[in-house]
Amino acid sequence: xxxxxxxxxxxxxxxxxxxxxxxxxxxxxxxxxxxxxxxxxxxxxxxxxxxxxxxxxxxxxxxxxxxxxxxxxx
Length: 74
Description:
This protein is of the alpha+beta class and 74 residues long. It has helices at 15-27, 37-49, 69-73; strands at 33-36, 61-64.
């Protein structure tokens, strides 16, 4: 399996998303995170495969990676 990442940095129509990601980064206390859910699906379909998503979502889900349950609870 080959790991790939989509470079969305040149997509000017996604400036709103990059601003949101910067806000999350500033608040995340160095926790690694990623976009998940329907927004991630729509981004992959649109920018990875050129397929316009028929049903577009208007929310953005983030997942944060923590190492322990106490860290999660904190």
